[in-house]
Amino acid sequence: MTTFGSRPVVAAVNGSAHSMAAALWAAKEALLCKTELLLLMAYGVDGGPFGNRSFPPDTWLKAKEAITGEVLHEFREACESAVPEVKVTTVAVDTGPVAALTEISATARLLAIGAPTGEIAGLFAGVSAARLSSGAVCPVVVVRGPGDDGPVVVGVDGSPLSEEALAWAFAEASNREAPLVALHAWHDGDVAGLFTGEGALPFPGESVRETENRVLGQRLAGWRKKYPQVPVDQVVVRDKPRHRLLELSEKARLVVVGTRGRGGFAALAVGSTSHALIHHAKCPVMVVRETGRPPR
Question: Which domain of life is it from (predicted)?
Answer without folding.
Answer: Bacteria
